[in-house]
Specification:
This protein is mainly α. It is built from 14 helices and two strands; from the N terminus they run H-E-E-H-H-H-H-H-H-H-H-H-H-H-H-H. The radius of gyration is 23 Å and the shape is globular. Mean pLDDT is 77; it is low at 1-10 and 301-346.
Length: 346
């Protein structure tokens, strides 16, 4: 594919040359591209496998791509992850720019995460934070790993907001459709496969070989997601039947209601709804990954015990007024959680 547009009069796009430049990227792509930019300039064309790639390495060039010509570069390239993990590019991350993408963004802004709906979830955040602190207090005087506790906090909040209840449970008094360990493994796999370097994406003529086995893992993972989400949908539809003036209280119910709405610009299918829900799962796992980094750093530097954990919690503002330890990394989730981290570590 060839695109021609005038970024700036007299601007020359440098090209390191060669049949493929993917070998120049190395194990640390940002650092490698920075070094190449120092040699070839703020904008250069590389070739990754069978595809040309234009790299912008200055604020001025970034503005041209992200603002002046943003409609040209708004879509992501097609990939195995988009095809197999987001129901054929139907979540907002992988969907091409166009009417469907704009409708999806509108649904997120006006239906799923508007101020009124976020305020309605406040009691969930408060209850789960109190349960989180209660679990820490029961471990008083014992060394603990914050990683698992932070995962459960985030998972419980997201589950109740998205699904209306906690489907993953470790309780010995109930038989959940999926255990916490299984759910965590499923999210870990989703987070990993969304970011892998799949050879078939860059060398399409090798795609059918699946040399790294990633496509096979993607197909297996999405099959597991399908089984789980089909169960969730069946439960929600059963609870809705026969109820007059039904008011949706969780994200699944909102999306199912939109799927039945004849006035939406583009009809939503169950695959569309699954893709939107899976997007929330991806964001959740991104949050957990960052939380794990915080926990690991603290443990490596000074050890984590119950007292240190409580110091970190006490450094946050009151949760009833909103706090989040991940606002800087995932503003999208911060808009759901409505809380910020403010810690002072010495």
């Amino acid at each position: 594919m060839y695109m021609q547009f005038n970024i700036k009069d007299g601007l020359r796009i440098s090209n390191p040359g060669g049949q493929s430049n993917i070998n120049l990227v190395g194990s640390h792509p940002p650092q490698s591209l920075h070094n190449l930019a120092k040699k070839y300039g703020p904008i250069m064309q590389l070739k990754f496998g069978s595809f040309p790639v234009v790299v912008a390495s200055s604020a001025e060039m970034a503005k041209e791509f992200l603002k002046t010509h943003d409609h040209v570069f708004a879509s992501r390239p097609k990939s195995a992850a988009g095809k197999y993990l987001s129901y054929n590019h139907h979540n907002i991350t992988w969907a091409p720019y166009g009417p469907y993408w704009r409708q999806g963004r509108k649904i997120y802004a006006s239906e799923l995460f508007n101020s009124k709906r976020l305020d309605s979830y406040q009691y969930i955040r408060v209850e789960e934070m109190r349960a989180f602190l209660s679990r820490l207090c029961t471990l008083s005087g014992k060394p603990i790993m914050l990683k698992g506790h932070l995962f459960h906090l985030s998972l419980n909040i997201i589950s109740r907001i998205v699904f209306g209840k906690k489907y993953a449970s470790e309780s010995k008094y109930e038989t959940p459709i999926i255990t916490v360990k299984e759910f965590q493994e499923m999210l870990d796999e989703l987070f990993f496969l969304n970011g892998v370097f799949n050879i078939g994406d860059w060398l399409p003529w090798l795609d059918f070989l699946d040399l790294q086995g990633y496509v096979k893992r993607m197909k297996a993972l999405i099959k597991t997601f399908d089984q789980f989400l089909d169960h969730v949908f069946d439960e929600h539809k059963a609870k809705k039947e026969g109820v007059k003036d039904f008011v949706p209280k969780d994200i699944v119910n909102v999306l199912l209601q939109l799927a039945d709405d004849p006035n939406v610009d583009i009809k939503l299918t169950y695959d569309n709804i699954k893709a939107f829900i899976q997007q929330n799962a991806s964001l959740h796992q991104g949050e957990v990954h960052f939380a794990n980094q915080i926990s690991s750093q603290l443990q490596d530097n000074q050890g984590i015990d119950q007292a240190a954990a409580m110091i970190m919690i006490e450094a946050m503002p009151h949760y009833d007024q909103g706090v989040s330890y991940l606002t800087v990394l995932l503003p999208a989730l911060a808009s759901v959680y409505k809380y910020r981290i403010r810690t002072c570590m010495h």
